[in-house]
Design brief:
This protein has 198 residues and is mainly beta. The protein contains one helix and ten strands; from the N terminus they run H-E-E-E-E-E-E-E-E-E-E. It has a single domain, classed as Beta Barrel (Porin). Strands 1, 2, 3, 4, 5, 6, 7, 8, 9 and 10 form a ten-stranded antiparallel beta sheet that branches.
Length: 198
Protein backbone atom coordinates (compact mmCIF):
# COMPACT_ATOMS: atom_id res chain seq x y z
CA UNK A 1 0.00 0.00 0.00
CA UNK A 2 2.84 2.38 0.87
CA UNK A 3 4.51 1.67 -2.49
CA UNK A 4 1.25 2.44 -4.32
CA UNK A 5 0.96 5.71 -2.41
CA UNK A 6 4.52 6.71 -3.33
CA UNK A 7 3.92 5.82 -6.99
CA UNK A 8 0.64 7.75 -6.98
CA UNK A 9 2.27 10.85 -5.52
CA UNK A 10 5.12 10.59 -8.02
CA UNK A 11 2.67 10.34 -10.91
CA UNK A 12 0.75 13.37 -9.68
CA UNK A 13 3.98 15.38 -9.41
CA UNK A 14 5.06 14.34 -12.91
CA UNK A 15 1.65 15.23 -14.32
CA UNK A 16 1.83 18.62 -12.65
CA UNK A 17 5.28 19.26 -14.07
CA UNK A 18 4.12 18.13 -17.50
CA UNK A 19 1.20 20.55 -17.55
CA UNK A 20 3.29 23.52 -16.41
CA UNK A 21 6.65 22.84 -18.08
CA UNK A 22 5.64 25.01 -21.06
CA UNK A 23 3.74 27.51 -18.95
CA UNK A 24 4.32 31.16 -19.62
CA UNK A 25 3.26 34.30 -21.43
CA UNK A 26 3.78 34.89 -25.14
CA UNK A 27 3.59 38.05 -27.18
CA UNK A 28 0.13 38.31 -28.74
CA UNK A 29 -1.65 36.36 -26.00
CA UNK A 30 -5.11 37.46 -24.89
CA UNK A 31 -6.21 37.01 -21.29
CA UNK A 32 -9.70 36.73 -19.76
CA UNK A 33 -9.94 36.81 -15.97
CA UNK A 34 -12.74 36.43 -13.45
CA UNK A 35 -12.13 37.44 -9.88
CA UNK A 36 -13.55 38.40 -6.53
CA UNK A 37 -12.31 41.21 -4.34
CA UNK A 38 -12.14 42.57 -0.83
CA UNK A 39 -12.22 46.36 -0.56
CA UNK A 40 -11.26 48.50 2.44
CA UNK A 41 -11.86 52.22 3.10
CA UNK A 42 -12.84 54.48 6.00
CA UNK A 43 -16.28 52.81 6.12
CA UNK A 44 -16.16 49.01 6.21
CA UNK A 45 -14.92 46.14 4.10
CA UNK A 46 -17.06 44.84 1.25
CA UNK A 47 -17.16 42.17 -1.42
CA UNK A 48 -17.41 42.32 -5.18
CA UNK A 49 -16.75 40.63 -8.51
CA UNK A 50 -14.89 41.71 -11.62
CA UNK A 51 -14.08 40.72 -15.19
CA UNK A 52 -10.82 41.62 -16.95
CA UNK A 53 -9.73 41.46 -20.60
CA UNK A 54 -6.06 41.95 -21.45
CA UNK A 55 -3.71 41.77 -24.44
CA UNK A 56 0.04 41.18 -24.31
CA UNK A 57 1.69 43.74 -26.59
CA UNK A 58 4.94 42.00 -25.73
CA UNK A 59 5.52 39.03 -23.43
CA UNK A 60 6.30 41.49 -20.62
CA UNK A 61 3.69 44.22 -21.24
CA UNK A 62 -0.07 43.72 -20.93
CA UNK A 63 -2.74 46.36 -21.61
CA UNK A 64 -6.47 46.01 -21.16
CA UNK A 65 -9.48 46.92 -19.09
CA UNK A 66 -11.76 45.71 -16.33
CA UNK A 67 -15.26 46.23 -14.98
CA UNK A 68 -16.11 45.59 -11.32
CA UNK A 69 -19.31 45.53 -9.29
CA UNK A 70 -19.30 46.09 -5.50
CA UNK A 71 -21.94 45.82 -2.78
CA UNK A 72 -21.60 46.87 0.84
CA UNK A 73 -23.66 47.36 4.01
CA UNK A 74 -22.36 50.19 6.16
CA UNK A 75 -23.09 53.11 8.44
CA UNK A 76 -21.87 56.69 8.23
CA UNK A 77 -22.11 60.20 9.65
CA UNK A 78 -24.42 62.69 7.89
CA UNK A 79 -22.96 66.20 7.78
CA UNK A 80 -24.64 69.52 7.00
CA UNK A 81 -22.08 72.22 6.15
CA UNK A 82 -19.46 70.09 7.88
CA UNK A 83 -21.39 69.48 11.12
CA UNK A 84 -22.59 65.99 12.06
CA UNK A 85 -26.37 65.82 12.20
CA UNK A 86 -27.12 62.09 12.11
CA UNK A 87 -25.76 58.56 11.70
CA UNK A 88 -27.58 56.12 9.44
CA UNK A 89 -27.21 52.68 7.84
CA UNK A 90 -26.66 52.51 4.08
CA UNK A 91 -26.56 50.09 1.20
CA UNK A 92 -23.59 51.02 -0.96
CA UNK A 93 -23.36 49.80 -4.56
CA UNK A 94 -21.09 50.89 -7.35
CA UNK A 95 -19.57 50.04 -10.69
CA UNK A 96 -16.09 50.94 -11.84
CA UNK A 97 -14.45 50.58 -15.22
CA UNK A 98 -10.75 51.11 -15.84
CA UNK A 99 -7.93 50.76 -18.34
CA UNK A 100 -4.62 49.31 -17.15
CA UNK A 101 -1.03 48.60 -18.16
CA UNK A 102 1.06 45.90 -16.42
CA UNK A 103 4.74 44.99 -16.62
CA UNK A 104 5.71 41.34 -15.93
CA UNK A 105 9.12 40.64 -14.40
CA UNK A 106 9.06 36.94 -15.34
CA UNK A 107 7.17 35.43 -18.27
CA UNK A 108 8.41 31.82 -18.30
CA UNK A 109 7.73 29.23 -15.63
CA UNK A 110 5.02 28.85 -13.03
CA UNK A 111 5.26 32.29 -11.37
CA UNK A 112 4.66 35.63 -13.10
CA UNK A 113 4.94 38.68 -10.78
CA UNK A 114 3.85 42.04 -12.16
CA UNK A 115 3.38 45.72 -11.41
CA UNK A 116 1.28 48.38 -13.12
CA UNK A 117 -1.22 51.19 -12.96
CA UNK A 118 -4.75 52.07 -13.99
CA UNK A 119 -7.11 54.96 -14.67
CA UNK A 120 -10.88 54.77 -14.81
CA UNK A 121 -14.32 55.95 -13.76
CA UNK A 122 -16.54 55.14 -10.78
CA UNK A 123 -20.33 55.46 -10.50
CA UNK A 124 -21.59 54.86 -6.95
CA UNK A 125 -24.70 55.26 -4.81
CA UNK A 126 -25.49 55.18 -1.09
CA UNK A 127 -29.10 54.28 -0.33
CA UNK A 128 -30.65 54.70 3.13
CA UNK A 129 -34.20 54.15 1.89
CA UNK A 130 -36.82 56.46 0.45
CA UNK A 131 -35.42 59.65 -1.05
CA UNK A 132 -32.34 59.50 1.15
CA UNK A 133 -29.79 58.73 -1.55
CA UNK A 134 -26.24 60.00 -2.01
CA UNK A 135 -24.18 59.89 -5.20
CA UNK A 136 -20.51 59.92 -6.04
CA UNK A 137 -18.91 59.52 -9.44
CA UNK A 138 -15.73 60.59 -11.11
CA UNK A 139 -12.13 59.80 -11.86
CA UNK A 140 -10.15 57.05 -10.16
CA UNK A 141 -6.53 56.00 -10.63
CA UNK A 142 -3.98 53.86 -8.85
CA UNK A 143 -1.26 51.26 -8.81
CA UNK A 144 -1.29 47.45 -8.90
CA UNK A 145 1.07 44.83 -7.50
CA UNK A 146 0.31 41.20 -8.28
CA UNK A 147 1.41 37.67 -9.11
CA UNK A 148 0.07 34.89 -11.32
CA UNK A 149 0.65 31.18 -10.77
CA UNK A 150 0.26 28.85 -13.76
CA UNK A 151 -1.72 25.75 -12.85
CA UNK A 152 -1.52 24.62 -16.47
CA UNK A 153 0.17 25.86 -19.63
CA UNK A 154 -2.25 28.77 -20.14
CA UNK A 155 -4.40 28.84 -16.99
CA UNK A 156 -3.48 30.85 -13.91
CA UNK A 157 -4.69 31.73 -10.48
CA UNK A 158 -3.79 35.27 -9.47
CA UNK A 159 -3.66 37.58 -6.49
CA UNK A 160 -3.20 41.34 -6.66
CA UNK A 161 -3.30 44.43 -4.48
CA UNK A 162 -4.70 47.69 -5.85
CA UNK A 163 -4.02 51.04 -4.20
CA UNK A 164 -6.59 53.49 -5.55
CA UNK A 165 -7.40 57.18 -5.35
CA UNK A 166 -10.75 58.86 -6.07
CA UNK A 167 -10.95 62.50 -7.10
CA UNK A 168 -13.44 63.25 -4.33
CA UNK A 169 -14.01 62.07 -0.76
CA UNK A 170 -17.58 63.45 -0.52
CA UNK A 171 -20.95 61.93 -1.35
CA UNK A 172 -23.63 64.50 -2.19
CA UNK A 173 -27.34 64.21 -1.45
CA UNK A 174 -29.27 64.54 -4.70
CA UNK A 175 -31.69 67.04 -3.09
CA UNK A 176 -29.14 69.27 -1.39
CA UNK A 177 -25.45 69.33 -2.32
CA UNK A 178 -24.59 70.92 1.05
CA UNK A 179 -25.60 67.69 2.80
CA UNK A 180 -22.68 65.28 2.38
CA UNK A 181 -21.04 62.12 3.65
CA UNK A 182 -17.26 61.94 3.83
CA UNK A 183 -15.42 58.82 2.72
CA UNK A 184 -11.74 58.05 2.23
CA UNK A 185 -10.35 59.07 -1.17
CA UNK A 186 -7.70 56.32 -0.82
CA UNK A 187 -8.85 52.70 -1.24
CA UNK A 188 -7.21 49.30 -0.79
CA UNK A 189 -8.50 46.38 -2.88
CA UNK A 190 -7.32 42.77 -2.74
CA UNK A 191 -8.26 40.87 -5.89
CA UNK A 192 -8.03 37.12 -6.48
CA UNK A 193 -9.30 34.81 -9.20
CA UNK A 194 -8.58 32.69 -12.25
CA UNK A 195 -7.48 33.65 -15.74
CA UNK A 196 -7.06 31.95 -19.11
CA UNK A 197 -4.60 32.97 -21.83
CA UNK A 198 -5.25 32.14 -25.46
Amino acid sequence: MRKLTVVGVALLVMMSLATTSNAGIDEGDWEVALGGNFFFSDFHDNYGIGVTLGYFVTAEIEVGGWINYHNQDLSGDIKDHGDKVDEVDFQKTWWDIAFFAYYYFQVEGEWAPYIGGYIGYEDAELDAGGDFKFDRNGLMLGGVLGVKYFVSEKTTIFFEYRLGWRNTDEWEWSKDSDVTINDDALTHTFMFGISVLF
